[in-house]
Amino acid sequence: MLAEYAFPIMLAILLTITVTGTPMGLAMIASSVFYLAMSGRDVGLAAESVLNGIFGNFVALAVPLFIFAANIMNAGQISDRLLKFALALVGRFPGGLAQVNVLTSLIFSGMSGSAVSDVAGVGKVLTDMMTDKGRYPPGFAGAITAASSVVGPIFPPSIPLVFYALVSSTSVGVLFLAGVIPAMLIVAALGITVMIVSRRRGFPVEPAIALRAFPLIVLRAIPPLLMPVILLGGIYSGAFTPTEAAAVAAAYALLLSVIAYRALGWRAFYGVVLESARTTAVITIILCGAYIFNYVVSVERLPEAMLALFNSYQMEPWMFLLMVNLLFLVLGCFIDVSTILLVVVPLFIPTALLLGIDLNHFGIVVVVNLMIGLITPPYGILLFILKATNGIPLNAMIREIWLFIAVLIAALLVITYFPALSLWLPKVAGLL
Fold first, then answer.
1. pTM to 2 decimals?
2. CA triplet 114, 117, 122: central angle to 5 degrees?
3. Which of 286, 412, 411, 272 is nearest to 342 (CA)?
4. Is the distance from CB of 157 to CB of 66 less than 8 angstroms?
5. pLDDT of 79
6. Chain-centroid distance, C-alpha 275
7. Which of 369, 365, 430 is closest to 168 using CA atoms?
8. Which ranges of 113-149 would DSSP assign to H, the alpha helix?
9. Where are the chain's structural domains?
10. Is the dihedral of CA 203, 189, 328, 344 positive or negative?
11. Mean pLDDT of 112-134
């Protein structure tokens, strides 16, 4: 008798455990094991689902390697060279340092693939520079730092896109290429917004870099700038797989930091390894919980039920995409990105396929949604990180962030309803 109510009880347990502050990964594991026991299934299926998911998926190995590479970038002072390069390029425009902030996020995203790494690393440096001597209001500095960091997981390489590839059976290489033009669109939109706001509010312009100093700045920036070129070139030439590309990224970052720049000592390297291990452990727990939870979802046939629900409303592709946008914008404010990608997104993939929506385009739409959620109050994890690292009052950032959220949502709608922006490069490359 109780077996009939196993799933709703499991959801109630999941919600209760999560509200108490327990990490989502552990909450999914505990509630799913309870479901298996209550429904009369073998509890050992939980361990089997985890083992098959973790050890049976080569792509998952890319995640800790990209995390390691991003942490090396932050610790090895590589970001300093990129910052000076961006300053030389766009510092003379209205709102110079804010423009540098946006451009640096794009450049740094070609190495880290993580919005959190962007905010905690080079974003902290930029925010301090902007607020120094009262040049920019702290709230504006924090808001543009958070808003520009969403580019990180859209431009390749991207940890969220690796997760999406895991659940959608799409190609990581195609997804990486599909994110290039949408990322450029977002950077352009933010840059134009910064220019308009800076002129209206009288934000300063940075002194022009002397022409004779420019070649040296470019030369010093070339080695780190080569990383995305090496990664994408290796993937699309067939020299290595996306997972092997993550290992190449980590090795290249280590080579630059330790040998070329001599900026990473043993103590700092130990800190990088420790931080990478901690982050990987958190993500692995979420992965384990997601694999068990997804097994329960498949047993309950939820994807089929959702597909039938959408069919009953005779939903058009544009309506489905609008609904997905609204749902994920809200979910991204409250739930961890990894959890949404691994648990919620698979429920919508069958419907997207039925409606003829390209799954690579759908992946870009989903990830852009979730990145906007990272800066949207009340949760807005990136805002909390900036508050912790820079001491900027949360209410000051919230007052300034709404304009950038509106710009990002406008860019999201363009990306959503013009799939060619995501699919043109993969088609040109012969991948679609």
1. 0.82
2. 125
3. 286
4. yes
5. 67
6. 18
7. 365
8. 115-118, 124-131, 138-149
9. 60-283+301-428
10. negative
11. 71
